[in-house]
Amino acid sequence: MAQLQLNNVNKTFQRKTGEAVHVLNNINLTVEEGEVIGIIGTNGAGKSTLLNALTGSIQIDTGEILLADKPIQGLDQVEIAKYIGRVFQDPSMGTAPRMTVFENLMLAKKRGTIRGFSKSLTDENYQQMQDFVQKFYLNLEDRLDIPIENLSGGQRQIISLLMATMQRPDLLLLDEHTAALDPRTAKQVMETTQEMVREQQLTTLMITHHLQDALTYSDRIILMHHGQIIKIYDQETIQTLSSGDLYQYMEDLII
Ligand SMILES: Nc1ncnc2c1ncn2[C@@H]1O[C@H](COP(=O)(O)OP(=O)(O)OP(=O)(O)O)[C@@H](O)[C@H]1O
Ligand SMILES: [Mg+2]
Questions:
Q1: Three-state SS string across the chain, please?
Q2: Whole-prediction pTM
Q3: Which domains does the chain have, with CATH numbers?
Q4: Which ligand is nearest to the CA of 19?
Q5: What is the pLDDT of residue 218?
Q6: Which atom of ligand 1 is least distant from the CA of 45?
């Protein structure tokens, strides 16, 4: 069964100049359960807009989006957030900065509902979160009491990942989630991501400009340009490609 299906999805934005930009141009995509799809493409290709359409932060003009066979286009963001987890490029997004790491994790556990939230801040839950975080060998278990804004960018991205995946989402969306990190931390976050995705067999869409990461971690790669999916590389093809090949292909598109 397909976990995600996009049928003829279109979205046009109106620029201030009045010019219409077709940002999602007849997108068709089927993603199987547990598949990891890398999304690459030039700046402005429509990659983030595609994820925004999935999470309901923009409404599509025409087309159909099915998540686990149910249409989700038209649902509001809060509703969709129950099924889709998302991690952004900016480590400060997707978390409540002034709240502690523990409070943020508990919010995620309650899927963002404030009702009964303060009652959930018990010693028992604290212990549970410490055990949970310990699994990832990040020495975060002693830092659950500090405001999340005081963590390093890498630590925040790991916590964001934990929050996005805690309730096993039907779909995980990663939008350049390692792009703001130094190379060593980026690698560590990418490896932790792979561990979490594998452990829960999460269906994942991952936007990245790191072509090697796309090749290493994806089952399939889609290449977007000017609002279209212009190429889909399957696993067999990926095995034969280098990041240089992908780079060259993208370079040729721009010229
Ligand atoms: N809310 C919006 N209103 C108007 N135009 C928008 C809006 N969001 C995105 N766009 C435009 O849509 C196009 C695609 O943007 P998008 O952010 O999806 O690109 P991207 O592929 O994610 O690029 P990047 O690699 O730079 O992140 C761009 O031309 C952008 O200016
Ligand atoms: Mg983007």
A1: CEEEEEEEEEEEEECCCCCEEEEEEEEEEEEECCCEEEEEECCCCCHHHHHHHHHCCCCCCEEEEEECCEECCCCCHHHHCCCEEEECCCCCCCCCCCCEHHHHHHHHHCCCCCCCCHHHCCHHHHHHHHHHHHCCCCCCCCCCCCEHHHCCHHHHHHHHHHHHHCCCCCEEEEECCCCCCCHHHHHHHHHHHHHHHHHHCCCEEEECCCHHHHHHHCCEEEEEECCEEEEEECHHHHHHCCHHHHHHHHHHHHC
A2: 0.94
A3: 2-83+169-254 (3.40.50.300)
A4: 1
A5: 98
A6: 21
